[in-house]
Amino acid sequence: MVLIAAFVLLTIGTAGFLYRLLRGPTLADRVVGLDGLLSIVVIAIIVTAAERVSFVTIETVLVAVLVGFVGTAALGRFIERRGS
Amino acid sequence: MVDVISGTLIVLGCAFAAIGGIGTWRFPDVLSRMHAAAKAPTLGLVLVSIGAALRIDTLLAATTLALVVILQLLTSPLGAHALSRATRRHIDAEVDAGVDELLADELALDDEVADEQ
Q: Which residues of A touch B44 (CB under 8 A)?
């Protein structure tokens, strides 16, 4: 029950971020969409781990959070230099 | 009892992630979309992590999730700040100079450069 409700809500969030990732209009909008999709993935991994009552998949979340930060910061610097 | 609390927290956190997605979809301009995308999913991640830590009920899981939450709380504002500053420099928005402190800073910087020349 909790799992179904959680994943229905996450699907709604994914639809919003995916729309922004595909539609644009600027590069910063796409970066925002990509960053949001990564947070959705992180939340989904934690929800799945809680449902299975196991912590073996939680370490991957750490990597995902750090990769997301590096990607967003690097793309921010890139936009700052290149424009649009 | 613990299951009820953790289930509520998990569903609430996913609802915050959904709100972030809806805001990113519906808001009219880039900076307000960043505002929606930077804060709501972070709070959702915090709530989901507390719920999962209550449900898994292991010290290892709790410490790992605490590390995840701390990292997310540290890195999410930094990434959003870098992105929004880059965007603000490149959009041609009509911004009130009394409110926009970045614009005020840049105008002051321009004046200093002009004074030096």
A: 39, 43
